[in-house]
Amino acid sequence: MGLSHNERLFQVFEHLKSSSRIKTYISFGELIGENKAGVNDLKNDRKKVTLEHFLRLKNSYPELNTDYLIGVSDELLLPDSDSNGKYASKASTPQGDQQAVIAALRETIASKNETIEALKSLLSK
Q1: In sequence order, which residues have a C-beta less than 8 Å from that of residue 86 and are 6 or more positions away?
Q2: pLDDT digit string, tens, across residues 47-78
Q3: CA–CA distance, 31 with 34 (Å, rounded to integer)
Q4: In Å, what is the CA distance from 60 to each residue of 30, 97, 103?
Q5: Phi and psi, residue 3, nearest 5°
Q6: 7-26 burial code (b ≥16 CB/10 A, e <16)
Q7: How distant, in Å, are the alpha carbons of 40, 91, 95 from that of 112?
Q8: Which of 10, 16, 20, 73 is the one with CA 20 to 30 A from 99?
Q9: Are 32 and 53 in contact (CB under 8 A)?
Q10: Residue 43 CB-density burial (10 A; 0-12 exposed, 13-18 middle, 19+ buried)
Q11: Residue 63 and residue 82: Cα distance in Å, rounded?
């Protein structure tokens, strides 16, 4: 977890490029609201990644792990993503599995609460 936020941003770029979902820095810049020079500045640490960059990425690619983006996880994709990075929706579960679903939802809520706290701490810096 020693990567900077800028390095994490470009890890996401490399993932999207390798999965043929984005091709160039220009298209990546359009996605995150930067021009080519802005992307270059981010790449060379002359400009810092903002929450807005991460929000735009997450809105376009919901399979990205927000915890990875903010630096509290080493997993770039959410566990339910397939090998192409697409988020896999789960089929409906039988009645007997309701407790397992409830437990998983509670775990997800706890994880999201941790993410919120981490984002709050980033914003307060």
Answers
A1: 63
A2: 999 999 999 999 999 999 989 998 888 999 99
A3: 8
A4: 12, 31, 28
A5: -75, 145
A6: ebbbebbebbbeeeebeebe
A7: 31, 22, 26
A8: 73
A9: yes
A10: middle
A11: 9
What number of other Cβ atoms are within 10 A of residue 115's Cβ?
Answer: 17
Q: Mean pLDDT score of the chain, rounded to an integer?
A: 84
- Cα dihedral across residues 92, 96, 99, 104: positive or negative: negative
Query: What CA–CA distance (Å, rounded) separates 23 from 27?
Result: 7
Crossing angle for the helix pair 51-60 and 5-18, to the nearest 10 degrees: 20
- Each residue of 70-107: pLDDT tens digit? 888 899 999 876 655 555 544 444 555 667 667 777 88
pLDDT at 9 over 90: yes
